[in-house]
């Protein structure tokens, strides 16, 4: 059976380091105009099944398939029969019989699990309600570029306990970075995810949980947040804004909390001002746009690994 990529938990620490290193190599080659690839996906089609709209994920995955010589086929929620007149199983069997891989951006985690179970070809998780591994690879590339290494760094998450956090935390502890996670007391990280993070801390890195953002950012080299109100959660807007009072990332938060002198800010976008103010977001401490650009290089690295090579190779 083809190996799929559903979460950072699917990777060993060595495999994750290799994906990051390969992403950086690809980035340097493309930016310098020296990117040479034998078009390993020439004559092949990669299906992109998106049940949710997207900017960075769609652009990066379509671009990655093109860089590898393949033909991306975008299938939005209104383009195919999935969920209307055809079951997920039937759709998976049909699509995987005619394409070389499935990149899927879905809702329930059970959907991406079902796709991977019944597909003949690799399934790449481009986001589900539980995980967002492609984003985490791009984030780790940004941290590697900013600091040169992972060992000894501390990262702080200030925001919601969501899919982006789950894979970001898994990647952090796999690569040897301690992580401190601040979420509102009414929205804690689930026990299931805490256990998964602990089981992936092969390097001895630790994860700390709190509801106090100032506690989380103490000694942090990286401060990260994300959208508080995700797609489909709009009805929770007013309640969430109350719960997240005091969570906006500002220079004052970093100073009062005692962040490291060299701290950087990250956000996977789209960003709203209640999550981080303009002073931080557009400052020299912010690497958000480099982080966003890295989505392309991480997508190329992931597709090259799982679709072309059927596994992560150096």
TrEMBL record:
Record pathway: Amino-acid biosynthesis; L-arginine biosynthesis; L-arginine from L-ornithine and carbamoyl phosphate: step 1/3
EC numbers, comma separated: 2.1.3.3
PROSITE patterns hit by this protein: CARBAMOYLTRANSFERASE
Origin superkingdom: Eukaryota
GO biological process terms, semicolon-separated: citrulline biosynthetic process; L-arginine biosynthetic process via ornithine
Listed GO MF terms: amino acid binding; ornithine carbamoyltransferase activity
Protein name as it appears in the record: ornithine carbamoyltransferase
Organism in which the protein naturally occurs: Wickerhamiella sorbophila
């Amino acid at each position: 059976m083809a190996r799929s990529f559903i979460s950072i938990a699917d990777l060993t620490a060595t495999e994750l380091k290799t994906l990051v290193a390969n992403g950086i190599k690809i980035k340097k080659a493309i930016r310098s105009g020296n990117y040479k690839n034998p078009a390993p996906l020439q004559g092949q089609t990669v299906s992109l099944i998106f049940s949710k709209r997207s900017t960075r994920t769609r652009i990066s995955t379509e671009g990655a398939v093109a860089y590898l010589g393949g033909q991306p086929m975008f299938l939005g929620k209104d383009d195919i029969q999935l969920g209307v007149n055809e079951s997920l199983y039937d759709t998976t069997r049909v699509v995987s019989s005619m394409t070389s891989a499935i990149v899927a951006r879905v809702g329930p985690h059970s959907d991406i699990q079902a796709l991977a179970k019944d597909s003949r070809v690799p399934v790449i998780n481009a986001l589900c309600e539980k995980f967002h591994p492609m984003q985490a690879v791009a984030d780790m590339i940004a941290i590697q570029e900013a600091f040169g290494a992972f060992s000894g760094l501390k990262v702080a998450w200030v925001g919601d306990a969501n899919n982006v956090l789950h894979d970001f935390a898994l990647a952090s502890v796999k690569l040897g970075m301690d992580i401190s996670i601040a979420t509102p007391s009414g929205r804690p990280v689930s026990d299931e995810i805490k256990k998964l993070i602990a089981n992936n801390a092969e390097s001895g890195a630790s994860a700390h949980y709190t509801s106090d953002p100032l506690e989380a950012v103490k000694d942090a080299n990286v401060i990260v947040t994300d959208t508080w109100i995700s797609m489909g959660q709009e009805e929770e807007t007013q309640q969430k804004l109350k719960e997240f009072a005091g969570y906006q990332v500002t220079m004052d938060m970093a100073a009062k909390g005692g962040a490291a002198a060299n701290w950087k800010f990250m956000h996977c976008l789209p960003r709203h001002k209640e999550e981080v103010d303009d002073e931080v977001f557009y400052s020299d401490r912010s690497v958000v746009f480099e982080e966003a650009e890295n989505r392309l290089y991480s997508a190329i690295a992931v597709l090259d690994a799982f679709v072309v090579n059927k596994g992560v190779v150096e």
